[in-house]
């Protein structure tokens, strides 16, 4: 997660690395003359790249985390919607360049936001299908069972900031028990009890305790942000 970045419309907010690294660079390359048609082609290209990146992220060795892949796919879809509709709260780096390009295409008058939303709604089913391209029809690859994702129709209606808070909370809730279990596995006494003194005395346990404490501090800072 990236916190306290310049150029974020909402103060004191952390951006998921998934959103910060989203494949949107080519959206600034929309050609003049038939901008909306070319914009559509560039969005489809971005979504295809993003789908492949997410697929590679969750396919490791001989396993594939289908659930997390689909969760990220839905989150990316909603964030692309915010970007196109002009409701994205990220306004730094390539996100700002994309927003400037979209303003050139749709204008900045009082009707621009509604025009952008209509354009997204007119094309969003095709956009969703493009996001599915990396897994569509794959079925099974070796030992990896690949299932097509179902769109969460309500997710894009949730404000972006609220979605990210939910995403952060889900990650924290899943990561903390795993890290604590790892800590206990290394630092437990033979009687099965956790001896906190070992965090100060034994090298491997001390290193694990320090890493866990640093992670807790980081998560607290993110939450306080």
From TrEMBL:
Q: Which InterPro entries match?
A: Duffy-ag-bd_sf (IPR042202), Duffy-antigen-binding (IPR008602)
GO cellular component assignments: membrane
What GO molecular functions are on record for this protein? Answer: host cell surface receptor binding
Pfam families this protein is in? Duffy_binding
Database matches in SUPFAM superfamilies: Duffy binding domain-like
Q: Where is the Duffy-antigen binding domain?
A: 12-162
Q: What is this protein called?
A: Erythrocyte-binding protein 2
What is the species of this protein?
Plasmodium vivax
Give the classification, highest ranks: Eukaryota, Sar, Alveolata, Apicomplexa, Aconoidasida
């Amino acid at each position: 997660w990236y916190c306290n970045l310049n150029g974020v419309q909402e103060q004191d907010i952390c951006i998921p690395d998934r959103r910060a690294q989203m494949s949107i660079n080519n959206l600034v390359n929309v050609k003049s003359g038939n901008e909306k048609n070319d914009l559509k082609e560039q969005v489809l290209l971005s979504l295809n790249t993003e789908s492949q990146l997410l697929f590679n992220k969750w396919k490791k060795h001989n396993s594939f985390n289908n659930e997390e892949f689909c969760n990220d796919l839905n989150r990316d879809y909603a964030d692309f919607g915010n970007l196109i509709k002009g409701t994205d709260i990220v306004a730094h780096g390539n996100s700002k360049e994309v927003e400037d390009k979209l303003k050139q295409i749709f204008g900045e008058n009082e009707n621009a936001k509604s025009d952008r939303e209509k354009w997204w709604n007119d094309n969003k089913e095709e956009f969703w299908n493009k996001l599915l391209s990396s897994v569509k029809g794959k079925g099974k690859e070796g030992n990896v069972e690949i299932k097509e994702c179902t769109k969460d129709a309500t997710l894009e209606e949730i404000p972006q900031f609220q979605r990210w808070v939910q995403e952060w909370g889900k990650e924290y809730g899943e990561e903390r028990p795993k890290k604590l279990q790892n800590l206990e596995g290394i630092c437990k006494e033979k009687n099965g009890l956790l001896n906190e003194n070992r965090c100060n005395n034994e090298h491997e346990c001390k290193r694990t305790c320090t890493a866990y404490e640093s992670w807790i501090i980081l998560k607290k800072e993110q939450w306080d942000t």
